[in-house]
């Protein structure tokens, strides 16, 4: 019997691109190497790959679980006070940054509190997501000079003004007429009393008979 026909070239190419070489050779499939996050890229490269860049001091952190069932995973939440924004939309001084808890999954780890940190993260407003591959690190003077050369001097957070309460109308009871003194302003009431006094004096003089 003739041997098996060789696979067409386009089939072999597709198998190679899909990692199918192990199916042809019997060798176990090799997992893709994890990205090397130990050396962050340039400031410009890091900024191009995230939504927001800002400096902030971490004031607290806690480990939490998100998701349900088999999709539950551990994360670390950082509470931070933003100092200066270089990129993105940050609408609150108090923000939350979430990252994977595990260092193997490129979590940010335990960030020292009350130390200024430069965050390269995704998200907006007051909630952000980051990992070590995005390049967040301690904000040194040399690093901030590099950031300002690329992204400018940045700006402080401008929080939106709170909504003003709507005006309320109060209906007055009009069935009983108010006294004249309450209807008139104090100055107008004094003037009216003075005019009434002058009129009374005038009438009294007209009634007194002239001598001689």
Bin the strand percentage: 15-25%
The CATH architecture of the domain at 43-151 comes to Beta Barrel
Can you tell me the CATH class of the domain at 43-151?
A: Mainly Beta
Number of helices: 6
- Give a quick account of the main beta sheet: strands, pairing sense, barrel closure: 5 strands, mixed, barrel
Number of strands: 6
Low-confidence stretches: 5-25
Helix content: 25-40%
Mean pLDDT: 77
Distance between the termini: 165 Å
Shape by Cα distribution: elongated
Which structural category do the helix and sheet elements fall into? alpha+beta
Radius of gyration, whole Å: 39 Å
- List SSEs in N-to-C order: HHHEEEEEEHHH
List the helices and strands and how they pair.
Layout: H1 9-17, H2 21-25, H3 43-48, E1 52-66, E2 73-87, E3 94-100, E4 116-124, E5 127-129, E6 137-138, H4 141-151, H5 180-183, H6 186-207
Parallel strand pairs: 3-5
Antiparallel strand pairs: 1-2, 1-4, 2-3, 4-5, 4-6
């Amino acid at each position: 019997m003739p041997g098996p026909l060789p696979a067409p070239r386009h089939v072999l190419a597709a198998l190679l691109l899909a990692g199918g070489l192990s199916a042809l050779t019997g060798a176990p499939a090799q997992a893709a190497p994890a990205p090397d996050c130990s050396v962050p890229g340039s400031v410009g490269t890091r900024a191009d790959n995230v939504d927001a860049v800002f400096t902030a001091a971490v004031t607290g952190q806690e480990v939490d679980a998100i998701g349900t069932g088999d999709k539950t995973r551990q994360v670390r939440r950082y509470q931070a006070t933003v100092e200066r924004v270089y990129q993105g939309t940050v609408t609150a001084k108090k923000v939350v940054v979430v990252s994977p808890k595990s260092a193997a999954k490129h979590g940010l780890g335990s960030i020292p509190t009350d130390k200024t940190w430069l965050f390269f993260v995704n998200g907006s407003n007051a909630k952000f997501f980051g990992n070590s591959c995005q390049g967040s690190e301690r904000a040194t003077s040399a690093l901030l000079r590099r950031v300002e050369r690329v992204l400018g001097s940045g700006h402080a957070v401008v929080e939106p003004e709170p909504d003003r309460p709507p005006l309320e109308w109060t209906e007055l009871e009009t069935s009983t007429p108010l006294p004249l003194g309450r209807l008139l302003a104090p100055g107008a009431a004094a003037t009216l009393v003075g005019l009434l006094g002058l009129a009374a004096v005038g009438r009294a003089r007209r009634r007194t008979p002239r001598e001689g």
